[in-house]
Amino acid sequence: MLKKMNKNTKSNLITYGIVIAAFVIMQILISTGSVSSLLEGLMVPLCVYVILAVSLNLVVGILGELSLGHAGFMCVGAFSSAFFSKCMRDVIENGAVRFLLAMLIGIVVAAVFGIIIGIPVLRLKGDYLAIVTLAFGEIIKNLVNVLFIGKDSSGFHFSTKDAMSLNMEPDGMVIVNGPQGITGTPQDATFLTGFIMILITLFIVINLINSRDGRAIMSIRDNRIAAESVGINITKYKLMAFTISAALAGGAGVLYAHNLSTLTANTNNFGYNQSIMILVFVVLGGIGNIRGSIIAAVVLTLLPELLRGLSDYRMLIYAIVLILMMLFNWAPKAIEWREKYLTFGRKKKEAVK
Q: Which strand ranges, in their side-by-side order, compose the sheet holding 173-177?
C-alpha cells in the first residue's frame, strides 16, 4: 500500500507520525517522572509555538508574503478567549466545554481581524506588507494595555483611563485591568489539548496545500501575473491564506492564555520580538517546509531550557545552533550535499528492487 502512495502523501504521513510519536514519548516520560517539572511546564508553550510556526509558514512559505503581525493575531485570540472564560467561569462549570467555547471564540475573533486587516493590507507586498502587519501587531498590543473592562450587576463598563474610571458598584469585578491584563483565567489548557490543536492545524494546512485552492495560492507565490492571466482571483486566495493563518494563530493564543494565571500584553508575549521569533522558526525550518517548522519550533523552544545549567555558555550555544541550522537549510553546498545523499539513497533502493 505504501508503494502506491505518492511522494506528498508519504511525506504528510511521516509528519503526522513524528508528531504522534513525540507526544506518546513525552507522555510516557512525564507519567514515569523522568521529566523535570520545568520541562513539563514547557509542553503547552511548545504546542503554541509549533502551531504559530506552521500557521505563519502558510503565509510566508505557501503564499510567499512576509507578515510580521502574527503575534497580534495571537494576542487577539488570547484576550478574547480569556475574557470569555473569566466571565463564564461561574456560569459554565465544565472546564472542557468552557475551554472549547473559548477556543472557538478566539479562533473566530482572530479570523475576523484577519479579514479586516487582510483586505487593505494584502494590496501591498514585500517590505510594505511586513511594515503594515508589524504596525498592526504593535497597535493591538498597545490597545489592550490601555483598555479597562469591568462587570457588575448593571453590565459591562469600559474605560481607557484607569480602573477607578469604570464607576462600578462595590461588588463589581475588573476583568481587563490595562497593563496588568487579565488575572484568574481558568488554566484549562493541557498538553493533550495542545497536541490535538497541532493535529488540527496540520490537517488544515496540509490539506489546503494539497488542494486546488492550495495550488492556486502557490501559483500566486510563484508568478502573480501568470496566475492572474489564467483567471485566478488573487485577492480571494491571498485573503483565504491570510485569514486561515490568523485564525490558527488565534487558536494558539487561546492555548497560551489558558496556560497562565495572569495574561498581560507586554513586549515579550505579544510584541515585535514574538513575531520575529515565530518568523525565525519558519526560516530556520525551511520556508514552505511544514515539518521543518515543527522541528525548528521544538528545538529552539527547548534548547534554552535544556542548556540552563550552562549559564555562562547557554546563549552562545543557542546562537551556534541557529547558525548551523541556517547553514544546513540554506547554504548552497549543504543543499547540494543533501540532494546528492537523497539521490544516492533513492538509486540504492531502486537497485535493490
A: 155-159, 148-152, 173-177
Number of C-alpha atoms within 13 angstroms, CB side, residue 181?
A: 23
User: To which residue does cell 510563484 refer?
Assistant: 222
pTM of the model: 0.88
Cα three-residue angle 45-304-334, rounded to 5 degrees: 100
Contact yes or no for 254/103 (Cβ under 8 A): yes
Name the 3-class secondary structure at 156.
strand
Cell of 39: 520541562
**Residue count (the chain):** 353
SS (H, E, C) 7-21: HHHHHHHHHHHHHHH
Cα–Cα distance between 83 and 105 in angstroms, integer? Answer: 10
What is the C-alpha to C-alpha distance for residues 207 and 199, in angstroms, rounded to an integer? 12
Judge contact between 294 and 19, C-beta under 8 A.
Answer: yes
For residue 77, how many other CB atoms are within 10 A of its CB?
32
Cα dihedral 204→209→210→216 (10° resolution):
130
What does the block give as the cell for 297? 519550533
H helix or E strand, kind and range, residue 227: helix 224-229
Report DSSP state, residue 58. I
Rg (alpha carbons) of the chain, rounded to whole number = 22
Per-residue cell: 264: 498581560
Place of cell 513586549: 267
pLDDT digits (tens, 9 = 90+) for 84-135: 998 888 788 888 899 999 999 999 999 999 999 988 888 877 778 888 888 8
Distance of CA 184 to the CA centre of its chain: 23
Listing DSSP states for 254-319 in one string gives HHHHTT-SEE---HHHHSHHHHHHHHHHHHHH-TT-HHHHHHHHHHHHHHHHHTTT-TTTHHHHHH
Amino acid identity for residue 176 in this structure: V
Q: Measured between alpha carbons, how far is residue 266 from residues 140, 142, 147, 179, 220 in Å?
A: 11, 9, 13, 8, 36
Q: What are phi and psi of 150, to 5 degrees?
A: -130, 165
Whole-number Å distance between alpha carbons of 161 and 166: 9
The band of 227, judged by pLDDT with boundaries at 50, 70 and 90, is confident
Of 215 and 11, which is predicted with more confidence?
Answer: 215
